[in-house]
Design brief:
226 residues, two-stranded parallel ribbon, 38% helix, alpha/beta, Rossmann fold
């Protein structure tokens, strides 16, 4: 079993989209996959309870069928920082809560287990200096960095990569997610990231306003995942 932690240069940069597309490619290799999102904030109330759109996408993409609560056991309705949402309901987010989620997912024994974080690398779980990154560190996960291609992405990508390495984890590669069709000097920004980030580019997700289903893989993708 290979376990990967998917983080982003910021919130709303396409971690879920990239995770789903990666899982789809891994499914083509006839491997078993499971993608989970332990914590979500921004859910709809349904007859089955709170449901997060991103988590539902991960559930659908995974080749192993599991109950929604395995995918996303910690869910909050408000689209705000999870620890603030937890505080509103008198709850606390602890590493133990996330660990329980991961341990449950591992019981399914997927070949590839993707764990999507929330927000960016330093998303706080509380106000005591515990972060989502501590969860990845605690489990020594391989990290995949999703770079939202927009103004400022060079700074965000470099700083995030430096933080991952400083924490002692291996960033096995990055994925460029094109967020709009009109980013100035898009190709030049890709070239800069290829030069400035010491880990390989695994893929590029082109801008797809009608629905995201395409991903351009690099030669490094198969080397990393096989």
């Amino acid at each position: 079993m290979q376990t990967y932690f998917v983080t982003g240069t910021d919130t709303d940069v396409g971690k879920t989209v990239c995770s789903v597309l990666i899982v789809n490619e891994l499914n083509k290799l006839s491997t078993s996959t499971l993608a989970i999102k332990p914590v979500s904030a921004g859910c709809q109330s349904t007859e089955h309870g709170l449901r997060n759109e991103d988590a539902l996408m991960l559930q659908k993409a995974s080749s192993i069928e599991v109950d929604y609560n395995v995918i996303n056991p910690i869910a909050y309705k408000e689209f705000i920082a999870p620890h603030i949402a937890a505080s509103k309901y008198g709850e606390k987010l602890e590493l133990e809560n996330l660990q329980d989620c991961l341990d449950r997912a591992k019981q399914e024994k997927p070949d590839h287990l993707l764990v999507e974080g929330a927000g960016g690398w330093r998303l706080p779980l509380n106000n005591r200096g515990i972060f989502m990154s501590d969860f990845a560190l605690q489990n020594q996960m391989k990290v995949i960095l999703v770079v939202g291609m927009r103004l400022g992405c060079l700074n965000h990508a470099i700083l995030t990569h430096q933080a991952i390495v400083a924490d002692g984890l291996n960033c096995i590669g990055w994925v460029a997610n094109q967020l709009s069709s009109d980013m100035p000097f898009y190709d030049e920004n890709i070239t800069s990231l290829q030069s400035l980030l010491p880990c390989p580019q695994l893929a590029e997700v082109p801008y797809q306003p009608e629905g995201v289903d395409k991903i351009k893989l690099t030669e490094d993708f198969l080397e990393v995942f096989t």
